[in-house]
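Subject: Sanity check before I submit

Could someone independently write out the structure tokens for this chain? I want to compare against mine line by line before I put it in a report. The sequence has 408 residues.
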Amino acid sequence: MIERISYKLAFIALLVLALHAIGAHADDAADTPMFSFSGFGTVGVVHSSEDQADFTSSLFKPNGTGHTRDWSADVDSLIAAQVTANFTPQLSAILQVISEQNYDNTYRPHVEWVNIRYQFTPDFSVRVGRTVLPAFLLSDTRKVGYTYPWVRPPLEVYGLLPISNSDGLDLSYRLHLGELSNTLQVEVGQKDAEFVNNDGTVEARGTWGLSNTTESGPLTTRITYQKTYLTIASLNALFDAFRQFGPQGVAIADKYDSNDKPFNFLGIGVSYDPGTWFVMGEWGHVDTHSSIGKRTAWYVSGGHRFGTFTPYVIYARANADNLSDPGLGAPGAAGLNAALNSILSTKPVQNTLSIGGRWDFMKNADLKLQFDHTDIGAGSSGTLSNLQPGFQPGGKVNVFGATIDFVF
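---
Independent answer below. Compare away.
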């Protein structure tokens, strides 16, 4: 109930601030208004060749294309609005609201960002509220399809840390060394995220991280470390049942449960974009003491701009540790073992080759087409979700997507 009220209040606040922005602009177009309004969106459709599972863009989406529907607009489509308030040269605030497919299969708007920033110096600032989680090269514009060349960021890497924001505080300090600019961000906070179909909440507590971004001409690098303590309460019943089988069951439960377990993420990204072409890549590693296990993923991508047309290619790979466990040999434990191995098999092990093109057919809008061919590792379901009884781990999946991105 509190969450629903907060959505409504945030949306009302957005509308009020938008009206203020319009009024301020009308009153004095020559002056910079205290409030500014902007937005972005994506309209897309996606098709998958796998009819016993769904292809989605996030594990927090309940369905997509494949089994649920032949073509889906839910995978990539969204609409967002943002209001920025500049109260003084030092004090500002931002509110960003996004409507996209939610865990409960609705498009109820949610608050992606809402924070207050104080700029102590031109290079040092502090923000309090809900802010972006700066884990990847594209974290700041992760939802803004118009800002990157592809239909979507590679799921192998960006799926390592599917949560895109955090509630807390962050500090940012920028250092200039000639043409080089180095920005260090430090954040602390927490985050709750709902699993699909109301299947419990993921709780991240004691979150803190460091992100260092260096820019020099066309070269950008980012190194990130994130640590949190993760709780997935929906798994408690399964591991409590394992504990009923004595020491061996307790050992399995302690190895795989997710009750306040440490979650460590390390990411490195590099981009070189001189204008007419680009090449970029990212690598990420997750280390946990739970059923999530250890995972590593990376991608490389490049493309060339021919006027308004940009063809590109992406190669991505994801690996994970044990996808199965022998479990308990005790009578009556077969069902528990099957449930555990079903969870472990969802760790993505796959590689994807993607080719696509972007056409900037008008100002502030583009059309993208992308074809993905994915080889899923034996024993893994890859990044697919909503698995059906007829689904077989491993195999090959082809996905085609088309989107129109815009900003305003």
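---
OP: Matches mine. For the report I'm noting this point. The chain has one domain: 49-70+121-137+145-407.
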